Amino acid sequence: MATEAYSTTTGQQQGGSAAAKPALRKPVFVKVDSLKPGTYGHTLVVKVLQSNNVSNKKLRPRVPKNQNSRIAEILVGDETGTILFTARNDQVESMNPGNTVILRNAKIDMFKGSMRLAVDKWGRIDVTEPATFVVKEENNLSLVEYELVNVVE
Questions:
Q1: I need a labelling partner for 91 at 20 to 30 A (CA). Which of 22, 116, 121, 126 fits?
Q2: Which positions fall inside the Single-stranded DNA binding protein Ssb-like OB fold domain (predicted)?
C-alpha cells in the first residue's frame, strides 16, 4: 500500500512573497469578424456607429426607487465588420456615435438566434482616441441567425 505525504509549507516559507501580485497578461485584441457564439474574454477596439435606446424603466422593488434601468442597442464595428452591442445603465453614456472605445473582457450573448456583444461587471469600457480605420458596414454579424442543434450519437 502506497502512502502519500502532503507538504504544509506556505509560499512565504518557499522564498516567495505571499503578497506579490501575479503578472498581468497583455491583452490580445481580436477583430469583429472572428467573434463566435458562446465565446467570452474578448478585447476589441471598435467605433460606435449608431445608438438605439431600447428600455428605460424602473428596476424591481428591491432596488432603490431613484434608479432606472437603461438598455440600448449600439451598432459598433471595425475594419472587418459590425455587431450589435448591448449597453446597460452607465455604459450607455460612453457609447456615443463617433466615439472609439476599447471593450475589455467582452462576451457574446445570443438573443433570438443572433449574436450580441456585451460587457458585464467583470469587463470594462474605455473611451480612447479616434481610430484611423474605416468601418466595414456590409458585414453585420448580428444579422446572421444561428440555430442550436442537438446531436444524438
A1: 22
A2: 35-127
Q: In one letter, which amino acid is 38?
A: G
pLDDT digits (tens, 9 = 90+) for 58-70: 545 555 555 667 8
Q: Model's pTM, two decimal places?
A: 0.73
DSSP string, 10-69: -TTTTT--TTPPPPPPPP-B--GGG--TT-EEEEEEEEEEEEEEEEEEE--TTS-TT-EE
**pLDDT tens figures, 75-105:** 999 899 999 999 888 888 888 888 899 999 9
> How many residues comprise the chain?
153
The tens digit of pLDDT for each residue in 2-36 reads 555 544 444 444 555 556 778 877 878 889 888 88
Residue 49, CA atoms < 13 Å, CB-side half-sphere: 19
Domain ranges for the chain, please list them.
32-56+69-128
Q: Are 36 and 57 in contact (CB under 8 A)?
A: no
CA distance 71 to 89: 6
